[in-house]
Amino acid sequence: MGIGEPPQPAATSQSSDGGSSLAEGSGGDWTAVAATVANSVVAIQVAGSDAGGGSQGSGVVWDDAGHIVTNHHVVENAPEGRVSVLVDNQVFAGTVIGSDAPTDLAVVVLDNQPASLVPLARGDADALRVGDEVAAIGNPLGLSGSVTTGIVSALDRPIATGSGANQAAAITNAIQTSAALNPGNSGGALVNRAGELVGINSAIATLNGSQSGNIGIGFAIPVDLTNHIVTQLIETGDVAHALLGTTNGDGTAILNGVETLGAQVRTVEPGGPAEQAGIQVGDVIIEADGETISSSRDLVGTVRGFSVGQEVVFKVIRDGTVHEITVTMGQSPNL
């Protein structure tokens, strides 16, 4: 916001995706990280109607082609898909070219990309560990370029990122962080000590439905899921979501004398991927592709990360015995 002298640029190196990250040996201090990512995160404004209803959020520079990644909920009401992107006190027009409510991700393309913008290097979300230090960069409450720090509080945390009727569909397995997130941080970057993108900030926990702001529990969509979705949005403007072909609820099963949490299969779609593979009503799914499943939300969030046609090994408890079942994921007709 222009208070004080601007930080000096940190030494950077090119990542494999063309973005910049901290050079080896730069120490990874947060001052250097902030300087490195300053030109890779933008503010997004969405105009309201005559009755009001405008919104604001953040976005991450994805590539050199003018693509900005943000949240679906930031741009879903953009008039005719048009938004304003703020860069260095200048306003640039952009168009939403694809948006995916189930993962709360969207892509905006700039009409003209300023030369100052730099794609943000992408890290490896699978390398994150609970306790790792991270920083959130975005536009909270309209305060562009804000940086807050914290740690990874939990991984694979299933969250509903929509509201109302969208709650059931918009479930992803998120990174939980203590870095302060507030309204306006949505769509911004969560970065590691190397200044690499590890997640797209998406949601904050609230008390009693209050929107008062940060309480130390924020959530970000992992960069690997983001890449999976954004690649499709850029190429086609749409996303093909994987389908298991079951409806599920939270359940338990006894294994080796111990009650084990999982997602209990309530119905199986006739002719669907699950039925063809041999999953049955009453099975309790406890693992998918090596990821522990402890609830129906866990299962939904995990399936969100699979690709259509991908072969996935599910572990289910049936009659006290673990069965491994390989399912070829189908395509959801409803997402």
From TrEMBL:
This is PDZ domain-containing protein. Residues 1-27 are annotated as: Disordered. Residues 251-295 form the PDZ domain. SMART domains: PDZ. Belongs to the peptidase S1C family. Residues 10-19 have a biased composition (Polar residues). It comes from the Bacteria. Transmembrane segments: none annotated. Gene3D superfamilies: 2.30.42.10, Trypsin-like serine proteases (2.40.10.10). GO terms for molecular function: serine-type endopeptidase activity. The lineage of its organism: Bacteria, Bacillati, Actinomycetota, Actinomycetes, Micrococcales. The keyword Protease applies. It comes from Gulosibacter macacae. InterPro entries: Chloro_Bact_Ser_Proteases (IPR051201), PDZ (IPR001478), PDZ_sf (IPR036034), Peptidase_S1_PA (IPR009003), Peptidase_S1_PA_chymotrypsin (IPR043504), Peptidase_S1C (IPR001940). Keywords: Hydrolase, Protease. GO terms for biological process: proteolysis. It holds the Pfam family Trypsin_2.
